[in-house]
## 1
Amino acid sequence: IAQLTQLRELDLEGNRLRNVPAALANLLQLQELKLANNELSDLPAAIIERIRSLKEITLQANHLRRSVETLGTDAPDDSVRKRHVIQLVPASDE
């Protein structure tokens, strides 16, 4: 996946992922990352820090250990996170 350097949209929804693959940090042209309906507990700061073109990350229906407002704040430069819109849609109670 790391060799798909021109990839702009990646849909990994519903794959039971427990971790975000580190190789995603090499997808520098990525604009939309769909990670909903997995088993993620965190979003690594490297994803937010390195992928400057990233506009949207969908994370609903995961097992996030911290609020979406704090995701990526462990990046060395907190202003990096301000470039991105992180979309988190609450899971339905059904």
Note: DSSP finds one helix and four strands in the chain.
## 2
Amino acid sequence: MVDGRDNGCRIPQKGAIADKQGYGMRYESRSFAPIVALALAAALAILPGSALAYIGPGVGAGAIGAVLGVVGSIFLALFAVIWYPIKRLLRRGKQKQRNDETGDE
């Protein structure tokens, strides 16, 4: 209690200022200009107009080669992960079959 008033011992938050009587808190209005500017810039970046620029065949061939390289490397990685354990199991089965035929243990 301060001066016979119970003000609830409120701790002001960031951006809050006490009102004239000191009983409650009111919040300063923040400017939305930076948010609007950022949204406008994002919209302009996402929706560009036509550039009217020429891209030669070399760039297209390079892009196709890069895409094929990435897809091929992913395919080979999956093939290696799947094939080598299967290959090991087949080899183990063949060795077991050979051992059974020769009588070795």
Note: Helices lie at 33-46, 57-102.
## 3
Amino acid sequence: LKAILSMDAYNRSYNQGIELTGTTFGGVTIIKDSEDLGFKLDSNGNQVLDAEGNPIRKDADIGFYAIAYEYQGEVIISYRGTDVAAGRHASTTSTIPQAMPQS
């Protein structure tokens, strides 16, 4: 499952390999992704735009993307990124147990 979620991180959001839609599959639910970080701002607090006039996402600007999933009570985080200087790609998937309920 974690290998599939790692591949899923490459196929969501900006620069995806395949356009995927939906927020649930195989009992997995997408909770949120790094798009929630917002957009790059200049020193005056205005959104920085690309050559086509579109706002530049903070995660895309640094070559990073993360997505959080919920599966059978666990939160699983998968992310991708690029070490641009070294020309390497990084991808990993981790499980974070949910906090124990307070009694």
Note: Strands lie at 24-25, 28-33, 64-71, 74-83, 88-97.
